[in-house]
Amino acid sequence: MADRMADKEPHWYVAHTYSGYEKKVKMDIEKTIENRNLQDQILEVSIPMLNVTEGEDEDSKVVPKKMFPAYVLINMYLNDDTWYVVRNTRGVTGFVGPGSKPVPLTDAEMASMGLKANAPACEFSIGDSVVVKSGVWEDTTGIVRQINHEDRMVTINIDMFGRETPVEISFNDVEIV
């Protein structure tokens, strides 16, 4: 088991549960995360829901339904500890994957469920000097003023005509000087 269990990046994994136990499994895993202080290893537990309209005309109402009954999605660094916590949670029958080896979801699978891929964290922080690698501002140096992790964008101040001008650029297009 230890040969495969060493993720350097977090991934989304799918745990199979008994039908109807999804919420209980989610709550139990979250409680274990808190009790064992694993917040930095198991980042999120999710039950993807879909809003479905039931009924006709005046009687219709929007009701949340599970997209994947009997499955729970877990965003985590896979290692022996996290595998053990999830696998031994009451109501979990196993991970999705061959044998007992969990297989992470692909970016396409995650996008179809409305989940964001785990992009690597940015390697710079506010105040760092960076250079733009591509685009209109290629080879321009600037100072990081704001970091938007969710959209993977960074705002840098560049010197233009003697004035500092804020420019928003993708994480992929800048690197530390």
Question: Helices and strands in order, then pairings?
Answer:
Elements (H helix, E strand, L loop, with lengths): L10 E7 L4 H14 L6 E5 L2 E6 L6 E6 L4 E6 L3 H8 L4 E4 L11 H6 L16 E4 L8 E8 L4 E8 L2 E8 L3 E3 L1
Antiparallel strand pairs: 1-5, 1-6, 2-5, 3-4, 7-8, 7-11, 8-9, 9-10
Outline the structure in words.
This protein has 177 residues and is an alpha+beta fold. The chain has two domains: 11-112, 2-Layer Sandwich (Alpha-Beta Plaits); 129-176, Roll (SH3 type barrels), CATH 2.30.30.30. Helices cover 16% and strands 37% of the residues. The chain has helices at 22-35, 80-87, 107-112; strands at residues 11-17, 42-46, 49-54, 61-66, 71-76, 92-95, 129-132, 141-148, 153-160, 163-170, 174-176. Strands 10-9-8-7-11 form a five-stranded antiparallel sheet, with no helix packed on it. It has a four-stranded antiparallel sheet with strand order 2-5-1-6, with helices on one face. The chain is extended. The mean pLDDT is 85.
Write a compact overview of the structure shown.
It contains three helices and eleven strands, in the order βαββββαβαβββββ. It is of the alpha+beta class and 177 residues long.
Comma- or semicolon-separated keywords:
Alpha-Beta Plaits; SH3 type barrels; four-stranded antiparallel beta sheet; 177 residues; alpha+beta; 37% strand; 16% helix; single chain
